[in-house]
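name: query_chain
kind: protein
chains: 1
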Amino acid sequence: MFTNEDMDSVFQALAHETRRAILDRLRDKPGLAVGELAASFDVTRIAVMNHLTVLTNAGLITSQKDGRTRRLYLNAMPLQLIYERWIDSYSAHWLDRMSLIKQTAEAVAQKSGKT
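structure:
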């Protein structure tokens, strides 16, 4: 079960620009080695490792050992759960409202076109 504490750790992880950039890189290149990832940032390898720890604790990345190399992967499930909590439940309401606005605008346009 995805708890409020889990959600807090995801938001905390996403709050830092470098961590978001790491997630972008892993989305674009799944299985990126830690060394390759660290080399693409202007911070120390230790700083990247600290960011990876935060992302791992939040459940946003997973890793797999490949010999002496650790391969990293984006785990989008926590983001999906957050999306489902807020966006899915609200999107139906707003889509209904947008449909009503569209219908009203079309009715007004049709009425003014006949006059």
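note: Helices lie at 4-14, 17-28, 34-39, 45-57, 77-114.
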